[in-house]
Design brief:
alpha+beta, 4 helices, 40% helix, elongated
Length: 283
């Protein structure tokens, strides 16, 4: 009886108020520590993901830029090859017509009126084909005005615009318009260089597969004489000092006027006169 009373008395005594508070503090610490660790890890992961996404976006932009650059180069090469093949096909057709006409038998009235038969001329001997286009060779002399002199020229049916050897190119404005100052080699038979100033007709965008980016070259208009053709034409200014011919004649001069026979050279009067003058000076 006494012992039961003792136990009942002990069980009815209240617990110490310090013990539950210690447990509660310990429990809070144990619970918050993993939560803090998880929060720090989540923040670090979010920063890593954002950094990776930024790097991926930058790489995607670089890849897109490279693809665009390659597409531009590829399209320019395709256009160049297409125009070259078209020009060569046109030249071949013209030469074929000329050959067929030259092989046709000549007809003439009866022998009684033979003296009244008109003499037929050979179009090829006069530097013209059957379509009344003048035939020129792969290499010719062209007269430019200014500077009013003959220059060696290579005929290129694959070039869209003709080109002139120009150095020390300097762009400037005059009366609100674009002008260009440059020097050209002296014409055939003369020494030195000639400084010229001409208004800019336009700027040509040149894409080169061997160089990065593109180049804007000034284009001017000059009067030229090639064979029996005299007119104004556009010339792109570029440094051709590393090439043998200061002038490149492109399709903008050849179109509808001239036919190129790549097996011939110096078929025009200007070329013959210039070569004769060169030979005379050498003698």
């Amino acid at each position: 009886m006494t012992s039961n009373k003792f136990f009942r008395t002990r069980s009815q005594q209240p617990l110490s108020p310090l013990l539950p508070r210690s447990w509660l503090a310990l429990l809070c610490i144990v619970c918050f520590l993993p939560a803090c660790a998880l929060l720090d890890g989540s923040i670090a992961k979010n920063e890593d993901v954002a950094l990776i996404n930024a790097q991926l976006l930058e790489q995607q932009q670089e890849i897109i830029a490279q693809h665009e650059k390659l597409d531009n180069i590829h399209n320019a090469q395709i256009h160049h090859h297409t125009t070259t093949i078209s020009a060569q096909a046109e030249t071949l057709r013209s030469l074929t017509v000329l050959l067929n006409r030259s092989n046709e038998p000549r007809s003439c009235p009866t022998i009684d009126i033979l003296n009244d038969c008109p003499q037929q001329s050979d179009p090829a001997s006069e530097g013209r084909n059957s379509t009344d286009k003048q035939i020129i060779g792969e290499l010719e002399f062209i007269r430019l005005m200014p500077p009013d002199g003959a220059y060696k020229a290579r005929i290129d049916t694959g070039a869209t615009t003709s080109s002139l050897d120009a150095r020390d190119i300097e762009k400037f404005e005059r009366d609100g318009e674009n002008w260009v100052r440059f020097t050209v080699p002296a014409p055939e038979g003369k020494d030195g260089e000639i400084e010229m100033e001409e208004p800019v007709a336009r700027f040509a965008r040149i894409i080169q597969s061997s160089a990065e980016g593109d180049e804007r070259r000034p284009v001017i208009k000059l009067q030229f004489e090639l064979g029996e053709t005299k007119r104004m034409a556009e010339f792109t200014l570029s440094d051709r000092s590393h090439l043998n011919y200061p002038v490149l004649v492109g399709r903008n001069i050849l179109r509808d006027l001239l036919v190129v026979d790549v097996s011939k050279k110096h078929m025009t009067r200007i070329s013959r006169d210039t070569l004769a003058a060169i030979e005379e000076r050498e003698e």
